[in-house]
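Dear U.,

For the methods section draft, I wanted the exact inputs and outputs in one place so we can describe them consistently. I've listed the two proteins in the order they'll appear in the manuscript figures. Please don't edit the token lines directly; just add comments below if something needs changing.

First protein:
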Amino acid sequence: MIIKASQRGGARQLAAHLLNEIDNQHVELTDVRGFISDDLHGALLEAHSISKATRCKQFMFSICLSPPPTETVPTEVFEAALERIEVEFGFENQPRALVFHEKEARRHLHAVYSRIDIEEMKAINLPHFKNKLRDISREIFLEQDLKIPRGLMNSQDRDFTNFTLQEYQQAKRERRDPKAIKAAFQESWNIADSTKAFRKRGTGRRYWPLTRRSHK
């Protein structure tokens, strides 16, 4: 799943863009949560109105989730991706609107969240959100057995603790949790003073042939 996002204002402009049927064969507003209004224009204008009680100008978090051009994924995969994003950024209870676009039999999802925490009356901070979304994207590609785009593959090469598809499938075959293995790699790597020391530790020995992509 390719995930792109931005912090932004412009409620009217974003609503008009998402409901544009000229560039999309099918547009469907599938969910409006946490707003009084049940239409997209009204919901995003509500988010704008609430933001006026704060200093936040980029009061929306706009996310686009797209499968690769040659792939089609079920709605459940989009929903699972959003759940991860909400947990990662603390957006589980934030107002949101979901819009599916379809063009040439390909669907992608736009999700728009209000960044304003009503109880605190301040914007939810989103540090390093692009990197965090990149990691979520990579995990979904691996889990769905999809070909990983070049950009995600390159970033993997810079961090040996991230799994390739081969490594992920190996862990699954052995009924081991890939995330737990990744955490163990990170811990061993942090305390080792060399690659030799890392290999002597039990954590890295079994998977070392698959993870020899960087040097300390």
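Second protein (the one for the lower panel):
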Amino acid sequence: MAGFANAAKTRAGDASKAGEDPAGGAARAIAPTTTSNENPLLRSGLVLAGANQLRSGDEDGILTAMEASGLDLWGTKLVVLSACETGVGKVTNGEGVYGLRRSLVIAGAESLVMSLWQVDDLATKDLMAGYYSKLAAGRGRSSALRDTQLELAAQGKYAHPYYWASFLAAGANSPINKDDP
């Protein structure tokens, strides 16, 4: 899965190569344009596995922010978008940022974790494993991410902010309780 933002169209056939960084980060498919009358929620989303198979019909393997806003996520405590650039969107004067973050909040997600730039696969794996461990131990959603980021930053191989600072949490910080409805 790869995130895309501010793209008028994706080049699904190039999704496995476009934007791949030398540190092994996930790929992105972006073809920026300046169409001003296009809905900004169509310009960001997720490219899922199989998107480059070009099947006909409604299921193209691309989830736009517009489609995500129509999901029923009420009662969803946490959405984690660990793919590259999932927290990026289009800034609209007087309206804020249009993108996956806004769409998932509209759909009912209580809190989100997302990335702002290309991320390293191994560092992300370690970050997410630590994050989920802290959540399982009862830490708050934002606090667990911050603590995990500080732990990664203290490691020599992940000391540079590129490896851990891309991720941000938004929404409720309370712990996720198994007994909550």
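Candidate sentences for the figure legend, describing the second protein: DSSP finds four helices and eight strands in the chain. Residues 121-136 form the longest helix (16 residues).

Thanks,
Y.
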